[in-house]
Amino acid sequence: MSDDHESRFRRIIRSHSVRYPLLKCKDIYKLVYQAAMGSAHRLNSFDAAREYLTEELNNSGRGPLEPVVDIISHDGCISRINLRPYLASGYDPENLITAFIRTGKEFTGSTEKLELYCRWLLRIADDGLLTVNLQAIDQYLSEIAKSDYPAVHHSSVYRSAYSPSYRVIASAFIRDLDIIQ
Q1: What are the backbone dihedrals phi and psi of residue 47, each rounded to the nearest 5 degrees, phi first?
Q2: 167 by DSSP, 3-state: which?
């Protein structure tokens, strides 16, 4: 991988660290997990995905100012679509549900990419560019690796502070959302 790839990754991590200063190790790992592996939620049923989205929207609080599309992988293949600005802009939730289901069916995650992201995270922490210290992220990532890189939930601190509400989709499906960028 070129330095340019790592530079793009660093910009993504830095922008999230600035936007969400209360990020914990778990939240940073969740971001890179999704960037490498896609969504941990694999809903094959359109009705189940709609129900899950409706329930989330009914229970989500206010959140920080976020872009509609948040590219989270260094190669641009995976994005988070932030629900509050997506719906506030009048975009169709049905299109998002379709893109979410297609991503679950068609996107193949990469443990190799996840491991690379974890190495890059340690370098970013070593440079002092994270809100968590190097020792904490190193220990957390070591434990995660021993557990074969499981999907995790956001930390309670992150959930309470930011009320995360998004869907992880393959960026190739953004055009199907009719988002004006």
Answers
A1: -65, -40
A2: strand
One-character DSSP codes across 112-158: HHHHHHHHHHHHHHHTT-SSS-HHHHHHHHHHHHHTT----PPPHHH
The values of phi and psi at residue 167, to 5°, are -125, 140
- The single residue listed with the structure tokens 């995660």 is 144
Nearest-angstrom CA–CA distance, 144 and 36: 15
Q: How many CA atoms lie within 13 A of 151 on its CB side?
A: 10
Q: Which two tokens mark 87?
A: 């719906």
Rounded CA-CA distance 100/141 in Å is 27
Segment 89-129, tens digit of pLDDT? 999 888 998 999 899 889 999 999 999 999 999 999 999 88
Domain map (residue ranges) of the chain = 3-177
pTM of model > 0.85: yes
